[in-house]
Automatic annotation (TrEMBL), chain B:
It comes from Billgrantia aerodenitrificans. Gene3D superfamilies: P-loop containing nucleotide triphosphate hydrolases. It holds the Pfam family oligo_HPY. Belongs to the ABC transporter superfamily. This is ATP-binding cassette domain-containing protein. NCBIfam families: oligo_HPY. It comes from the Bacteria. One of its GO terms (molecular function) is ATP binding.
TrEMBL record, chain C:
The chain crosses the membrane at residues 39-61, 112-137, 149-169, 181-202, 241-269, 289-313. It is a multi-pass membrane protein. PANTHER family: ABC TRANSPORTER PERMEASE PROTEIN, OLIGOPEPTIDE TRANSPORT SYSTEM PERMEASE PROTEIN APPC. It comes from the Bacteria. CDD domains: TM_PBP2. Keywords: Cell membrane, Membrane, Transmembrane, Transmembrane helix, Transport. This is ABC transporter permease. PROSITE patterns: ABC_TM1 (PS50928). It comes from Billgrantia aerodenitrificans. The lineage of its organism: Bacteria, Pseudomonadati, Pseudomonadota, Gammaproteobacteria, Oceanospirillales. It is found in: Cell membrane. Belongs to the binding-protein-dependent transport system permease family. Residues 110-310 form the ABC transmembrane type-1 domain.
Length: 368, 348, 322
């Protein structure tokens, strides 16, 4: 390493002293655990550079669960992967910054970033089997993680591991601690992964589709567990999922993504009950519900654009019932809209676009 | 439109029975290879994927099979279309016994096979990647109507593409040029090619995004209205099932726990497992509310519990539930329930 | 019912005029990857040059080394780059004990090496693919039988296998026929020793494809197994086979050289590269180094370039590595 620790600390301190642009309403007063500003991820290909994430900014407060939701290709997993630097090459962060507890982490050299994973950032993935090493017992993996990050001897670490397993609801952990991952059922395995993610008491966890591979009944158990543990430990969570139902019952705030951009962000009940962006509105209305029975589901025409062909202006404009010339020319920023913020010219405080009446009527009849 | 559909639905409910399944069973040998078995002295293992499933579907209606992984719903679909042979039971399609369909080959089976089609889950695996879309959609036509001229066939493929919301020139493109939702439309066009009466849909939207799911579900409903199709619909998603079905069969570990008209099941489920499944559905209406958390997981189907397979997770289980397999018993409200508690009147 | 509800995806690009096949090919990922790897470009050029040289040997070579009448015994052991004082012939790479031009011998020898290599690969490929398809598609006892035979064969080094097969076949033939049928016996011996890897790859790929839903869709229609096998599965399992075939070509060329070197391959009257090396080694320490060195280098370059091509093709065709 070229620089001494003290100069590094100074540099970090300078960075954290810099004013954070656009502080979000939901997190005012508390320093956010994770703060992402103007994040841009590019994939250079031989046919040109693809912009996978474009100007994404958000904060997550201590103990808060931010749901990041979107359809495939929206960039929701990409956002998580960019934060923990697991982008597949040739993808890379081209602009913007990521701060963890005020310290900038996106420009750290690789060897200083790796220790952050596990210690400060926990990770939970969709398939528990990819997060667990099949050749080591669950206890060994927990103890190794604990000892790598916390000053404990073998015995203390084992005690800690047992405590963690008990916490995540593994029955009779004394008997299961020396079992191997394949000896657990899918739900129990995901519990072990959660224990592993929490082992070093990180302040921030990224959960990428943590329940997608599980049955509904188990899904409910895992989400309840994740939510309770993070509240107890004050851990901030970025919950990446395609499932609005999961978001509805787990997240405190929601960020909706479309074509690599953040198009709406706000408290969960606002976004779900009163979506402001036409895409979010359409998305919510297209989900079949069990409370009501409709003859037809509302459908958004078309499909999400490919990264190689993102339309100019607002990326949603070709599918939007309200689209007008301005939407095709100018890209809207996140603007205050109802209880949340939405990237849509309908909510321009200076010169709001008039919504199309016919389309609005259609939406009223299908909205929930 | 609502009244229209209601009339149509009630007509469907009185229609003749198109498919009748009696006591279907399918066992799989999941033991290790013979040599390993001898050396490791392990026993022969049988997976009873489906064990005694019976139902009937009337012409024009949609029956859904719903349940968690390992409940055997996809196996039932594959038994019905003859991808698997029956270990036990009987299948009657429009009066004809087709229990031996899996064993019939080529032209022998064509008279039955041309009347039903299947739509699969994975839009990326269900189209031959080396074939042009037109060839894929034309495949059933080439087989069932060899007399059709290639010009007529091309015209029909174009019509089908338009019908599922694509365009006729798409016939010249390859599957990889299409998105998941568009591929599922191509699958549907292939299934429609020979104008079948009966469609078996195995999780047709579970690999799709919600907005695309809405498009596909609407398309399937439109096609049903237009052609009077009968659907056997397989899904794990209760909300999708509710949207699509006239009647719903809830499956658990190879057996049917409850069959009921869709509205009846959602308003007043009888079987404790049906109740659990409904309670576990994440609800957008109750933001921030936690679901009722149900303990336990689906057991390994190779070693199912004795008696009622659900008894280890059931709060109402007693000695009889542990010992005796419950039978499906019809109730006055139109549902059939396999539960000792409901039968004895212990449960509502 | 709203008809417009089913409009196609607005994001789908407007179909541009269809580019020509050649343009599409030049724009493909394979060509792109090829252009960016100098090693692969060199390997391709070398391979092509050697193939061409072997193919056009009768027009390129100064003499026909298989024709004893063209050999000048008096020019024996002429060093490379030398014009003979006796006959005035120029020997680019020198000559051997029979006065045979080493350059011509290499051209004709690589002709035989490549012929045996290609034929053996095709033999192994057809046999392995057929057995692999059968095992993977039908399963059961056929699968068990074929794969156990494959397992047993794999426990022997393939060169030993080839030696054994070579010996057995020759045992059945009268001695007088040995020289005439040497090339066919070699092809069968090498091909038989090599089918296992094709069979294994095809069996695995067949089992994967068989369970895919497009095959199930064809079965629901009721297509006969023969059609499903040849129209759906076979074309989709050919990719790994082509990769193994390319790498297998290099291995088959080396196997042929090894057999010929051991004296059980091509006779000295019809020398392949391996035979040339065997003959050449007698002179290694007596100062006539060129008789051994040049055929050896030719074999090395040929096998190496084909192998590099095979490796590259494997990487480019393997979606997981891209």
């Amino acid at each position: 390493m070229s620089s001494t620790p003290s100069s590094d600390n100074q540099r970090l301190a300078q960075h954290s002293a810099a004013p954070v642009a656009g502080h979000e309403p939901g997190t005012a007063g508390q320093e956010p655990v994770l703060s992402v500003r103007h994040l841009r991820v590019e994939f250079p290909t031989r046919h040109g550079t693809l912009v996978a994430l474009d100007d994404v900014s958000f904060d997550i407060a201590p103990g808060e669960v931010l749901g990041v939701v979107g359809e495939s290709g929206a960039g929701k997993s990409m956002t998580g992967n960019a934060v923990i630097r697991l982008l597949e090459p040739p993808g890379h962060i081209a602009a913007g910054e990521v701060r963890l507890s005020g310290k900038r982490i996106d420009d750290l050299p690789e060897e200083r970033f790796v220790p952050l994973r596990g210690r400060h950032i926990g990770m939970i993935f969709q398939d528990p089997l990819t997060s667990l090493n099949p050749l080591f017992s669950v206890g060994d993996q927990l103890i190794e993680t604990i000892r790598a990050h916390l000053p404990m001897n073998e015995r203390e670490a084992r005690e800690e591991a047992l405590k963690l397993l008990r916490e995540v609801g593994i029955p009779a952990p004394e008997n299961r601690i020396d079992s191997y991952p394949h000896q657990f059922s899918g739900g129990m395995r995901q519990r072990v992964v959660i224990a592993l993610a929490l082992a070093a008491r990180p302040e921030f966890i990224i959960a990428d589709e943590p329940t997608t591979a599980l049955d509904v009944s188990v899904q409910a158990q895992i989400l309840a567990l994740l939510k309770r543990l993070c509240a107890d430990h004050g851990t901030a969570v970025m919950l990446v999922t395609h499932d609005m139902g999961v978001i509805a019952e787990t997240a405190d705030r929601v960020a909706v993504m479309y074509a690599g951009r953040l198009i709406e962000i706000g408290p969960v009940d606002e976004v779900i009950r009163h979506p402001q962006h036409p895409y979010t509105k359409g998305l919510m209305a297209s989900i079949p519900g069990i409370a009501k029975r409709l003859d037809r589901l509302y459908q958004i025409e078309g499909a999400m654009p490919r990264l190689a062909a993102i339309p100019s202006g607002c990326a949603f404009n070709p599918r939007c019932p309200h689209a007008q010339q301005r939407c095709r020319d100018e890209r809207p920023d996140l603007l205050p809209a109802g209880g949340s913020r939405a990237a849509c010219w309908l909510h321009d405080p200076v010169d709001p676009l008039p919504p199309r009446q016919d389309a609005e009527g259609e939406e009223v009849s299908h909205g929930r | 439109m609502g009244a229209d559909t209601a009339v149509k639905k009630s007509a469907a409910a009185q229609g003749e029975i198109l498919l009748e399944a009696q006591d279907l069973a399918r066992y799989f040998d999941v033991s290790k290879p013979w040599l390993n078995r001898v050396i490791e002295r392990s026993e022969k293992l049988t997976l009873k994927a489906v064990d005694g499933v019976g139902f009937s579907i009337r012409r024009g209606e949609t029956l859904s099979l719903v349940g968690e992984s390992g409940c055997g719903k996809s196996t039932v679909a594959r038994l019905v279309v003859g991808l698997y042979g029956l270990t036990r039971g009987k299948l009657v399609f429009d009066g004809e016994d087709i229990s031996d369909l899996a064993g019939r080959t080529g032209r022998q089976a064509a008279s039955v096979r041309k009347r039903f089609q299947m739509i699969f889950q994975d839009p990326y695996a269900s189209l031959n990647p080396l074939w042009r879309v037109g060839t894929i959609i034309g495949e059933p036509l080439r087989f069932f109507r060899p007399e059709m001229s290639s010009t007529d066939r091309r015209r029909r493929v174009g019509e089908l593409l338009e019908q599922v919301g694509l365009s006729a020139p798409d016939a010249n493109r390859y599957p990889h040029e299409f998105s998941g939702g568009q591929r599922q439309r191509i699958s549907i066009a292939r299934a429609l090619a020979n104008e079948p009466e009966f469609m078996i849909c195995d999780e047709p939207t579970s690999a799709l995004d919600v907005s695309v799911q809405a498009q596909i579900l609407n398309l399937m409903r439109d096609l049903q209205d237009e052609y009077g199709l009968t659907y056997l619909f397989i899904s794990h998603d209760m909300a999708v099932v509710k949207h699509m079905s006239d009647r719903i069969a809830v499956m658990y570990l190879g057996r049917i726990a409850e069959i009921a008209p869709a509205d009846q099941l959602f308003e007043n489920p009888h079987h404790p497992y049906s109740k659990m499944l409904l309670a576990a559905v994440p609800s957008l209406e109750g933001v921030g509310k936690e679901r009722t958390v149900i303990q336990g997981e689906v057991p390994n189907p190779v070693h199912p519990p004795t008696g009622c397979a659900f008894h280890p997770r059931c709060p109402h289980a007693n000695e009889r539930c542990k010992a005796e397999v419950p039978r499906l018993i019809a109730r006055s409200d139109g549902s059939e329930v396999a539960c000792h508690g409901v039968e004895e009147g212990r449960l509502p | 019912m709203s008809q417009d509800a089913q409009t196609r995806d607005s994001a789908a690009p407007v179909v541009p005029p269809k580019p020509s096949k050649w343009r599409t090919f030049l724009d493909s990922d394979i060509v792109y990857s090829w252009k960016r790897q100098p090693v692969v470009i060199v390997a391709t050029l070398v391979t092509l040059i050697m193939f061409a040289a072997a193919l056009f040997a009768p027009w390129i070579a100064p003499q026909n080394p298989f024709d004893p009448r063209q050999l000048e015994l008096i020019d024996a052991f002429t060093p490379p780059m030398t014009t003979s004082d006796f006959t005035g012939n120029f020997y680019l790479l020198g000559s051997d004990s029979q006065g045979r031009d080493v350059f011509s011998a290499i051209l004709y020898g690589s002709r035989i090496s490549l012929l045996v290599g290609f034929a053996a690969v095709i033999f192994a490929l057809v046999m392995g693919t057929a057995l692999g398809l059968l095992a993977g598609f039908r399963g059961g006892w056929r699968d068990a039988l074929i794969m156990r035979i494959a397992d047993v064969q794999l426990t022997f080094p393939s060169i030993l296998m080839a030696l054994l097969i070579f010996g057995v076949i020759r045992g059945f033939l009268p001695r007088s026929m040995h020289a005439e049928v040497a090339i066919i016996v070699l092809i069968i011996a090498i091909g038989l020793s090599d089918w296992v890897q094709y069979a294994r790859a095809v069996r695995g790929a067949t089992m994967v494809e068989k369970s895919k839903e497009y095959v199930q869709a064809a079965r629901v229609i009721g297509l006969p197994a023969r059609k499903i096998l040849f129209q759906h599965i076979l074309p989709n399992v050919m990719r790994p086979v082509l990769v193994i075939g390319t790498i297998g070509l290099a291995l088959a060329i080396i196997a042929e050289a090894t057999l010929s070197f051991l004296g059980v391959g091509m006779p000295a009257t019809q020398p392949s590269l391996g035979t040339l090396i065997r003959v050449g080694q007698d002179y290694m320490f007596s100062g006539e180094w060129w008789i051994l060195l040049f055929p050896g280098v030719a074999l090395l370059i040929l096998a190496l370039s084909v192998n590099l091509l095979g490796d590259w093709l494997r990487d480019v065709l393997n979606p997981k590595l891209r």
